[in-house]
Amino acid sequence: MQFGVFTVGDVTKDPVSGKTLTEGERIQQMVTVALKAEEVGLDVFATGEHHNPPFVPSSPTTLLGFIAAKTSKILLSTSTTLITTNDPVKIAEDYAMLQHLAEGRVDLMMGRGNTGPVYPWFGQDIRNGIHLAIENYALLRRLWREDVVSWEGKFRTPLEGFTSTPRPLDGVPPFVWHGSIRSPEIAEQAAYYGDGFFHNNIFWPADHTARLIQHYRSRFEHYGHGAADQAIVGLGGQVFMRKNSQDARSEYRPYFDHSPIYGGGPSMEETMEQTPLAVGSPQEIIDRTMTFREKFGDYQRQLFIADHAGLPLKTVLEQMDILGSEVVPVLRKEFDALRRAHVPEAPTHESLKAAAERAASLESVSPEAVGLEGTR
């Protein structure tokens, strides 16, 4: 199972110190968090994509390419790549380039985002959101899997004999997660292609999350990709930890209250009760995260938000140290012990490459050879 952190890249005033980072400082902070994630032994660092204040990660491939040059192990991902407002040709080429630079340590999460005004900024209509997600992704898959593509759709100009460059590393496209918090159509899309489904459930109660994941699992099986419990599932979450729970809640409260995500809504206690937000001791975070498996079944990726709402970098890095030393090792051991043998691990470039090589090897064996082999 993969554990990691994701960032939304918000520039938010620290409600305790009163300091607000510059955009440049916030971008450098995200880089520092990614390097720390690798240092403490996490598996994944992911960034969102936003095109409006107070968020800065407008170019995920630029950020992740820079991080790739400074790391050697951690898998680099997105916690949203806007499949609706980005041109699928540009996505195909940008992420293939990143895949080469990072030597395969790349996957991405397709999503529609949560900012309605982004659609007209990029010449699209929000009322077409689901249809854009379906059409654009269908084209993206072809661009990664076919050397020459001729295509015509509704939302962009046709392509005639087009080849995207560079081609995916080793002929293996990056693994794709489809991220959604409310749309069964996106869960259906993930199931249809046998891709991963990521429910970024930071806002939602468990029963809603369970229904959408179950829909994805049942449709994954329906389309012949494996048993329902073999579907590839990822979950979001958010944590804040101190040695004891009262210190954690006291320290985190002003950041929660002024958060661009949570501020102005239900109280911290109500949010903790109704969503995966966990503020407390390391053991409380372990116990809470283990309940995810009970509610949603075996899954392959768990990402936490660690740096948002103006938290100072020193505090964020302390959270990363706790995750790496006290929380994730226990979670990894517990999840691995409970995972049933037939449930797959999270896909990586190496596992996808090996699967492609096995498939190619089987295709190269003639029926006659198979028949002769069976008589020996």
UniProtKB/TrEMBL annotation:
<keyword id="KW-0503">Monooxygenase</keyword>
<protein>
    <submittedName>
        <fullName>LLM class flavin-dependent oxidoreductase</fullName>
    </submittedName>
</protein>
<dbReference type="Pfam" id="PF00296">
    <property type="entry name" value="Bac_luciferase"/>
</dbReference>
<keyword id="KW-0560">Oxidoreductase</keyword>
<dbReference type="InterPro" id="IPR050766">
    <property type="entry name" value="Bact_Lucif_Oxidored"/>
</dbReference>
<dbReference type="InterPro" id="IPR023934">
    <property type="entry name" value="LLM_FMN-dep_put"/>
</dbReference>
<dbReference type="InterPro" id="IPR011251">
    <property type="entry name" value="Luciferase-like_dom"/>
</dbReference>
<feature type="domain" description="Luciferase-like">
    <location>
        <begin position="1"/>
        <end position="295"/>
    </location>
</feature>
<dbReference type="InterPro" id="IPR036661">
    <property type="entry name" value="Luciferase-like_sf"/>
</dbReference>
